Amino acid sequence: MSEPVAIVTSTPELIGALRQRADALGLSRNAIDELAELAPGLASKTLSLCPSKGIGLKIVWGLIEAVGLKFALVECPDAMARIAEYVGKRDEKQVRKTNALSVLRVRKKARIERIFSDPLYFKKLGKKGGRARAEALDARHRQRIAMLGGIAARQQRLKRKKAAALKAKSETQCVD
User: Fold this and answer.
1) What are the backbone angles phi and psi of residue 35, rounded to the nearest 5°?
2) Which helix or strand (DSSP H or E) is residue 159 part of?
3) Rounded Cα gap, residues 80 and 73, in angstroms
4) How far apart are CA 21 and CA 64, in angstroms?
5) pTM for this predicted structure
6) Residue 172 to residue 175: CA distance in whole angstroms
7) In terms of Cα–Cα distance, which of 12, 8, 61 is closest to 35?
8) How far apart (Å, rounded) are the C-alpha atoms in residues 7 and 17?
9) What is the pLDDT along the chain (176 residues), one digit of tens a residue?
10) pLDDT at 30
């Protein structure tokens, strides 16, 4: 394994190390954007001395790879001293035996596929929500909402009629 380029213990130190590495390699921020598959200008905003954008894990992995580095976890003696009283106190009976994240991902993926395979899904969902809202309201409120909907529909009809009349008038004036 090669020597570490930098040892970082915080986000500002990580940003500084990535900035120094990019400068040492002579990489432009636009080149980093392209290599890390980031939106144009994002590397400039995240690697500047006063970053205007935060840095999340997805961006970090792209930036690390774009400057030719990889991530290594190293045991820290100071941190180990702080957590020494907790080491080895895990109750194995309380640990889940399945990988809960993979189960959730499979369920989520199946649900998303089901949603987008049905072109009327959102229409059905909207109707269901409308019915639930209507059932929760009393008759007086439902009547008021219907009246306001009728008024709005009337205003739209008048607006379309007026626009059609103006269009017809302007076409006749252009012909003359």
Assistant:
1) -65, -40
2) helix 139-175
3) 13
4) 10
5) 0.52
6) 5
7) 61
8) 8
9) 688 888 898 999 999 999 999 999 999 999 999 999 999 999 999 999 888 888 888 899 999 999 999 988 889 999 999 998 888 887 877 776 666 666 677 777 777 777 777 778 888 888 999 899 888 999 999 899 989 999 999 999 999 999 999 888 877 766 55
10) 94
Position 81 scores a pLDDT of 92
Residue given tokens 């989520």 in the structure block: 108
Cα–Cα separations (whole angstroms), residue 61 to 39, 52, 121, 129, 141: 14, 19, 36, 41, 54
Structure tokens belonging to residue 64: 């690390």
Structure tokens at 65: 């790879």
Residue 5 DSSP code? S
What is the chain's Cα-based Rg?
Answer: 30
Structure tokens, 150: 């009728």
Two tokens at 156? 């739209």
Q: What are phi and psi of 103, to 5 degrees?
A: -65, -45
Distances (CA, A) of 20 to 67, 118, 152, 160: 10, 50, 60, 61
